[in-house]
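#lab-general

N.A. 3:47 PM
ok so I finally got the sequence cleaned up, no stray characters, all 284 residues accounted for. can someone with queue access submit it? mine expired

B.Y. 3:52 PM
send it over

N.A. 3:53 PM
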Amino acid sequence: MRFVIVTGMSGAGKSSVLKMLEDTGYFCVDNLPIQLLKKFIRLIEQGNQSNVALGIDIRSGQALREMESVLQDIHRSGFAYEILFLDCSPEVLVKRYKETRRIHPLSEVGRVEKGIALEQERLGFLRKKADVIIDTSHLLIRELKAQITKIYVDNEEFNNFFITILSFGFKYGVPVDSDLVFDVRFLPNPYYLPELKHLTGNDVTVQDYVMQGKTATDFLDKLEDMILFLIPNYIEEGKNQLVISIGCTGGKHRSVTLVNELYERLGQTEYGIKVEHRDILKDS
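B.Y. 4:20 PM
back already:
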């Protein structure tokens, strides 16, 4: 039997993950009182459930303080469990709460930001104990589902570090969540060629034009080398995601080409990675 404790920040996707696990055959229980956790485990050990997922979050209130000692007792008993922690940046969480007009469980009538900060503090011990941390700040539902299936259905190994490579246009502003920003406006610009102007960096003719000569290749070699150097140091620091933003003027040709090329190179690494082209459909 596989027993997974699903926890994390309110608004990060815990309910969605429990539904995903339920659809794959897990027996799921949400918001079980922590005082009943050890009794619940004894019951499922006596039953015939193959896989079980249990949702625990800030709604447990003051009882959450007991969770650490309860987990220690469960560990000493020899019962195997895993902790999945769903994380999300405060900025994205605030946006989600504003869009859904829901009230954060710790903010009451106050500011959502204060509730999120308090929740991070109270859930900190669970995050440290987590076997898997998934940051949903930049994940679509289908991408989150793919990650859950990979880990908890296909039993593949999961690396907590996730990389987003993002193309953008400087004329539309630098992405606010960028960790690293690179400017590729020094490369040949397809915009000035009538036959390429209305194409994008996803088209082979544009890619060939941007990558002509050694300049783009040399840049990618140096960029790849630097990123591969930085990642282990970021992980050691406790960082679990990296947003690499590459920009050109309009975010349609050069940056898209370079992002795709970098993805091909980093896609061979052990880390989770995805590509986004923020401004590719905008007029340039």
